[in-house]
Amino acid sequence: MGAQPLLSVDRVAVSYRVRNGLLRWTRFTPLQDVSFELRRGESLGLIGRNGAGKSTLLRMLAGIMAPDAGSIRNHGARVSLLSLGVGFLAHLSGRENAMLSGLLMGIRREEMRKRLPRLIEFADLGEFIDRPLYTYSAGMRARLGFATAIQVEPDVLLIDEILGVGDQDFRARSYAEIQRMVHAERAVVLVSHNLGAIRDICARTAWIDNGGLRALGETRPILQQYVRSEQEAGA
Questions:
Q1: Rg (CA), the chain
Q2: φ and ψ at 34, to 5 degrees?
Q3: CB atoms within 10 A of CB 6
Q4: Which of 118, 122, 120, 117 is nearest to 173 (CA)?
């Protein structure tokens, strides 16, 4: 028997209306008939072209969006989504945002206070930890988000491109923490256009193409198929 499932995705589809001309609307379906399971101790990559539905899928896994068809079953897992546009309040300081995120994830206030020193050390923001988030660069927001996520220790960590905006030291420390989480029987789902990061972090990869799951399996063969397809498309 395999590891315990944390999230089960069963024939999920989502669509919405988009404007097509001044008075006309059409229905766009970024995802349709997508199925897979995410299990404890697993690192799963999501690849595909821009607009393929990868970020939409992450938001559904996080419970922020609901599918129009199919289902996503959460088997009692605590899920955290890391995305530059989600989760923090611009007028609060980094310290206040970290504390609030921990409380929203169910960490008691006193326990979160105990975790703050290590969080602040990992984020390495200096005096900016007490400045409003709107003064942060994208890389600084990424460091704060990742540091907060590893301190609240979710069962499933969903990462939407944020590793691409940090410096080399941040990426190296983040990779090490992701490996620690996987070894601790948690799970990670990574969306990235950096295929090197997918290769280094993810044991399995799902390729989303034309709204569907084109391939799912071991990372290296999937990446080879994807690169070959992109080269043929650009020829």
A1: 18
A2: -100, 125
A3: 25
A4: 122
The structure tokens listed for 157 are: 């960590």
- Give the pLDDT of the chain (235 residues) as one tens digit per residue: 468 899 999 999 998 777 777 777 787 778 888 999 999 999 999 999 888 889 889 999 999 889 999 999 999 999 988 887 667 899 999 999 999 988 887 888 999 999 999 999 988 899 999 999 999 998 898 889 888 888 888 899 999 887 766 678 888 888 888 888 888 889 999 998 889 889 989 999 999 998 889 999 999 999 999 999 988 887 5
d(CA 123, CA 99): 14
Tokens of 184: 């601790």
Q: Which residue type does 78 have? A: R
In SS3 terms, the chain reads as: CCCCEEEEEEEEEEEEEEECCCCCEEEEEEEEEEEEEEECCCEEEEECCCCCCHHHHHHHHCCCCCCCEEEEEECCCCEEEEECCECCCCCCEHHHHHHHHHHHCCCCHHHHHHHHHHHHHHHCCHHHHHCEHHHCCHHHHHHHHHHHHHHHCCCEEEEECHHHCCCHHHHHHHHHHHHHHHHCCCEEEEECCCHHHHHHHCCEEEEEECCEEEEEEEHHHHHHHHHHHHHHHHC
Q: Other C-beta atoms within 10 Å of 49: how many?
A: 15
- Residue in 205, 172, 170 with CA at minimum distance from that of residue 188: 205
Place of tokens 């028997």: 1
Structure tokens at 178: 């992701």
